[in-house]
């Protein structure tokens, strides 16, 4: 079992909790000759691949480093501009590391809001009344599992695409939420969850599910 992350979204579509458990390794490094084959551009203060994916380098991947020097946004940690460094023929051959960095907090908030809207659209498109909305969304690289409670809170798990049967884990996570968040006198529903006991028990539940299997949690 491979669980990548967990998100909890409130009734208004706001992200109230997120937990990054593990992530697949997406980093690749190649040595290029001049001129550089992939086309790069600036996106959200990062240098990303816009065109020319090849051998593990995908459109959307970010430049993580050049010649062993990590990147820091649009520049390297030594202060050099990444695009200027790549455009200079004197720097070739050049070793560039590409990968997909972890989502920022703002990106997670935006994606949670987008999924909330897609969930509502899915419920309305259903030919059956009182649809449960999106429960499983499958792609080539991940699988999204979602469970909405009677109060409208959504629990979302992102897992390996081969993973099956996470419905039981979603129910267990709701039990953890009810026991360690809702019963906390300082917590109000729909507000961000900031509770150390909740953090510890959620992580422990996921670790146990990975170690023993979903059926044994």
Description of the molecule:
The chain is an alpha+beta fold. The protein is built from 4 helices and 12 strands; from the N terminus they run E-E-E-E-E-E-E-E-H-E-H-E-E-E-H-H. A hairpin with a 5-residue loop joins strand 1 (3-9) and strand 2. Helix 3 (167-182) runs antiparallel to helix 4. The protein starts with a strand and ends in a 5-residue tail after the last helix.
Runs with pLDDT <50, length 5+?
Answer: none
Largest sheet: 5 strands, antiparallel
Structural class: alpha+beta
Average pLDDT works out at 90
Q: N-to-C terminal Cα separation, in Å?
A: 13 Å
Side-by-side strand order of the widest sheet: 2-1-12-11-10
Helix content: 25-40%
Number of helices: 4
Radius of gyration: 21 Å
Tell me the β content. 25-35%
Principal-axis shape: elongated
Q: Order of SSEs, N→C?
A: EEEEEEEEHEHEEEHH
Count of strand segments: 12
Short description:
With 217 residues, this protein is of the alpha+beta class.
List the helices and strands and how they pair.
Blueprint: E1 3-9, E2 15-20, E3 28-32, E4 39-43, E5 46-51, E6 62-66, E7 69-72, E8 75-76, H1 82-87, E9 94-99, H2 105-125, E10 136-138, E11 143-148, E12 154-159, H3 167-182, H4 196-212
Antiparallel strand pairs: 1-2, 1-12, 3-9, 4-5, 6-7, 6-9, 7-8, 10-11, 11-12
Helix pairs in contact: 3-4
Keywords summarizing the entry:
217 residues; alpha+beta; five-stranded antiparallel β-sheet; 28% strand
């Amino acid at each position: 079992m491979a669980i990548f992350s967990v998100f909890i979204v409130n009734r208004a579509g706001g992200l109230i909790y997120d937990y990054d458990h593990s992530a697949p390794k997406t980093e690749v490094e190649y040595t290029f000759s001049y001129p550089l084959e992939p086309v790069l551009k600036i996106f959200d203060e990062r240098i990303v691949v816009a065109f020319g994916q090849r051998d593990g380098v995908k459109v959307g991947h970010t430049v993580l480093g050049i010649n062993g020097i990590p990147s820091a946004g649009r520049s390297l940690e030594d202060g050099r501009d990444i695009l200027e460094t790549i455009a200079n023929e004197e720097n070739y051959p050049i070793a560039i590391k590409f990968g997909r960095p972890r989502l920022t907090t703002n990106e997670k908030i935006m994606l949670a809001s987008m999924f909330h809207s897609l969930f509502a659209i899915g419920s309305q498109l259903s030919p059956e009344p009182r649809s449960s909305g999106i429960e499983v969304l499958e792609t080539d690289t991940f699988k999204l599992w979602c469970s909405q409670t009677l109060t409208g809170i959504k629990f979302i798990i992102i897992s390996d695409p081969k993973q099956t049967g996470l419905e039981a884990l979603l129910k267990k996570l709701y039990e953890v939420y009810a026991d360690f968040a809702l019963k906390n006198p300082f917590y109000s529903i729909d507000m961000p969850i900031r509770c150390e006991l909740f953090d510890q028990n959620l992580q422990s539940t996921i670790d146990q599910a990975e170690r023993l299997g979903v059926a044994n949690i």
